[in-house]
Amino acid sequence: DIVDTAVAAGSFNTLAAALEAADLIETLKGEGPFTVFAPTDAAFAALPEGTLDNLLKPENKATLQGILTYHVLPGKVMSADIAGQTLAPTTVQGTSVAIDATDGVKVKGANVVTADIEASNGVIHVIDAVILPE
Questions:
Q1: How many CB atoms lie under 10 A from the CB of residue 67?
Q2: Quick one: which H or E segment has residue 25?
Q3: Within a 10 A sphere around the Cβ of 25, how many other Cβ atoms?
Q4: Which of 134, 130, 133 has the alpha carbon at shortest distance from 37?
Q5: What's the burial of 127, exposed, middle or buried (CB within 10 Å: 0-12/13-18/19+)?
Q6: Judging by beta carbons within 10 Å of its beta carbon (0-12, 13-18, 19+), is residue 65 exposed, middle or buried?
Q7: Among positive and negative, which fits the CA dihedral 104, 108, 88, 2?
């Protein structure tokens, strides 16, 4: 599934820890399908100092859930499905995210660096930055 695939890749330890802190592991192990824009450990490390530590605190669980579910689309969207388009699909978090697939794929300014990693319950697209809802 999406969680096991990301953990096995080895460059998503921070994402896995954040999903656990937000109680979203079981959700992303669910039936799906889901499309996950997965920030690498380096993407999380690029956040302003202290941001991640603050988000991982139990009292900020709802905020963390909102940020993480903003990285997830319902359904399975492969890069070929959106090639050449600009769109703003609604995320699991409930707001839309800007996607520009006219020259590579950018998700709200983050670059998709590896696309179409298939999992049993969806697909992962690796991004180089953490995206934040408005």
A1: 18
A2: helix 25-28
A3: 15
A4: 130
A5: buried
A6: buried
A7: positive
Provide the 8-state DSSP code for 89. P
Tell whether pTM > 0.85: yes
Nearest residue to 56 (alpha-carbon basis) of 112, 15, 101: 15
Pairing of strands 86-87, 106-107: unpaired
- φ/ψ of 71, rounded to 5, equals -90, 5
Q: Indicate the residue type of 102.
A: T
**17 three-state secondary structure:** helix
Tens digit of pLDDT at every position of the chain (134 positions): 999 998 888 889 999 999 999 999 999 999 999 999 999 999 999 999 999 999 999 999 999 999 999 999 999 999 999 999 999 999 999 999 999 999 999 999 999 999 999 999 999 999 999 999 98
- Over 86-105, what HEC string results? EECCECCCCCECCEECCCCC
Quick one: 76 exposed, middle or buried, by C-beta within 10 A (0-12, 13-18, 19+)? middle
